[in-house]
Write a structure and sequence with these properties.
The complex is a heterodimer of chains A (about 400) and B (about 400).
Chain A: H1 2-37, H2 58-69, H3 85-96, E1 101-104, E2 108-111, E3 114-115, E4 120-121, E5 143-147, H4 150-153, H5 163-175, E6 179-182, H6 190-202, E7 209-214, H7 216-220, H8 229-238, H9 243-252, H10 255-273, H11 281-305, E8 308-313, H12 336-351, E9 358-360, H13 381-397
Parallel strand pairs in A: 5-6, 5-7, 7-8, 8-9
Antiparallel strand pairs in A: 1-2, 3-4
Helix pairs in contact in A: 1-10, 2-3, 5-13, 6-11, 11-12
Chain B: H1 2-46, H2 67-79, H3 94-104, E1 110-113, E2 117-120, E3 123-124, E4 129-130, E5 151-156, H4 159-162, H5 172-182, E6 187-191, H6 199-211, E7 218-223, H7 225-229, H8 238-249, H9 255-261, H10 264-277, H11 294-318, E8 322-327, H12 339-349, E9 357-359, H13 375-389
Parallel strand pairs in B: 5-6, 5-7, 7-8, 8-9
Antiparallel strand pairs in B: 1-2, 3-4
Helix pairs in contact in B: 2-3, 5-13, 6-11, 11-12
Classes of the chains: A alpha/beta (about 400), B alpha/beta (about 400).
Amino acid sequence: MTSTVDRLLTRAWRRAALVLLNGLVAFAILNVVCALILDPAPGAPAGDAAISAPPGSARYDAAVASAVAHGAFREKERFFPRLSPADVAGLMLESWLIRPYAYEPYTEFREGAYRGRFVRVDAQGFREGGTPQPWPPDRTARNVFVFGGSTIFGYGLPDADTVPAHLEHLLVRRVGPVRVYNFARGYYFSTQERVLFQQLLAAGTVPEVAVFVDGLNDFYNRTGDPQFTARLRGLLAHGPEAAETSAWSLLADLPAVRAVTRIARRVAARAEAAPTPGAPAAEVASVIARIRVNQRLIEAVAREHGVRVLFVWQPVPTYGYDLSAHPFAAGLGIHDLSGAGYPPMLELAASGALGPDFHSCAEIQRGLHEPLYLDQVHYTPRMAKRVARCIARAVVSRRLLSPG
Amino acid sequence: LTSVAAGGRRRRTDGLARLWTALAVLVLNTTLLLVLVNLGLAALFRAGLLPGAPAAAMRSGAAPGTPAYEAAVADAVARGTFRAREGLFPGRTPREVAALSLESRRFRGLAYLPYAQFVEGAYAGRFVHVDRAGFRSGGVPLPWPPEAGATNVFVFGDSTTFGDGLPDDATVPAALAALLGRRGRPVRVYNFGCAGYFSTQERVRFEALLVEGRVPAIAVFVDGIGDFARPDGEPALTDRLRQLMANAGEPPQDPLRAALGALPLARAATALRTWAGAEPEPAADTRPTPGRPVEATAAGVLARYLENKRQIGASARARGVRALFVWQPAPGVGGDATARSLGYAQLAARRDLGPDFAWCADVLVRTLDGVHYTPRTARRIARCIARALEGDAG
């Protein structure tokens, strides 16, 4: 009797062992197949998961080659008639995918230092323009610091085509030598810009003029927490030694899991593209209140240091723009609050409640029936120049810069 | 001949099948053994019978009544860990003093907070209560958000202001509330002191509260010790967050190694290594600033403090808040040649920094542990602050 039970148990144990081993082998084969099918070039831009790859590295070249082969950025090529498809792919990858963010105290994160072919970010966190910029800034020069989000940083644009780069060019032409530093960063909104501005002042880097270009990201960010807060909160709570973090990173890297994740992302992106119901007025009011307090704090601290400030209300596709001319209008759902928030904000500006330092460029796209955005929200080179022209006019007409 | 060949093939196949089965059993047995060992070690870690290695910055709170809390208190009493403090808390039993001391830091942790980087984590103990909004109440519950009709005072500072080692009603802000209340001013004092804070974090935290619409009537900033503990101007968890974010953006160099390192078996091995040969990390306020003369460090810290004071003053004025900057007493200052002693001496020479500045550094100071104030010292500092608020600054 005992030997029969033993035999049965042994047989069951052997079967379980075979199931486990065969399952593991099948899973390994599945991963090998997925790895062969999945292309190494990433799909949708996801700057927060970017991997650092300088030009000339095997990873950079492979990503560019793969993007060109798959036509990943073909729809952007028309905005850059002088660039080859490989150049456009390099520019887009440098903007979104092969340049990671880095942690920075107080602001939470910054654009990591990077020396690409099209995107160069200084170790101090500003993006270089067309001309060399010394650091620390020359105290005898007229220095302008520009703050904003990714649209002002110039995601999708080469260094010389960003709004601050054009602004420098325009101001130099109109008022003489000026150095414009591009302190815009992806995802930044008014609170982070204020904190960064104050940190620069505290470090003794005091510009003559500070320009804050806002609108899009404040309405995108409804909570007031920076983009990576939830992630950092989790990482710090559990620590790198937490099993779930390490185990998940190991699992997430498996080709089979990556394939499933990619499919899930596509499904989620389609769902996101669907129209969302009207934004609640309370959220709009809360965002506007945040913007106004930040403006008042910036003005107070700037006055203390003798810095002239300009608050520029930027153009966004959800306000005053003919969306039938927007090739990437699908997926604007995550920015719907800006569409609801712009009219009340501009009403406040018209009433004078936002003060004399406020200047709206939101209307510059009215009547233009052409593509002004190279994806859902980021400016084309021509649009960046238009925005820069609007800012330059305000800087000159308000005499913000001292005589050259 | 054909049947002989078929028999040979079958034998080979049977042999391979037996080998495969043996391999499968070996894999299963090894996996099970590893799982059992790891489960056992995980249980020991959870029960606190094995030391965590390395300690996480963010501890989960051990609440009163839980086995971990009661066991730690009983152990501290048995070892006499906090016997030296018992005389400072007359009327409290050794068990209560042990519980108070453990609640002050060991049972609680910090939580991530955007901008200021971290905040005291929410906790409800016997002696220490920290609200979800990050403030410590002073013995009586305080409403959050603060009531608009009340006179609200926000107090910012480091762990000496938070009141490490003191019960809720004996901290500097709690004593300040009692004093102001006695002088006929019904006030609500919110203790936003946080371990590791210095003037930059206090400025950032204060302004974040203003942006959230939490505007007090008065904001008090108690500084001195924390600023000299962070001469580089970076909050305490910066290196760790930098590393975490770098790893989060880029897959770990070796995810398999990272995953294996997270197993209880590997953690036990690390704990064993640490126990065998590790040296304790020096306290933050004793760290030298490499390659920088003490004079330059002192001057840099003071310049940063004055700049933060200037910015806070501007922000406070813009929102109609009365700001008071308090220079706190630090134990042992002047007895050594550190940047802190030098900085205190330099500031003492020019202590008149305006009507919004109160020099409380001369208050007679006694500590629980070399840094944190006794109840009596906390009351003395509160009296100095109250006098300054009543118009007798300095």
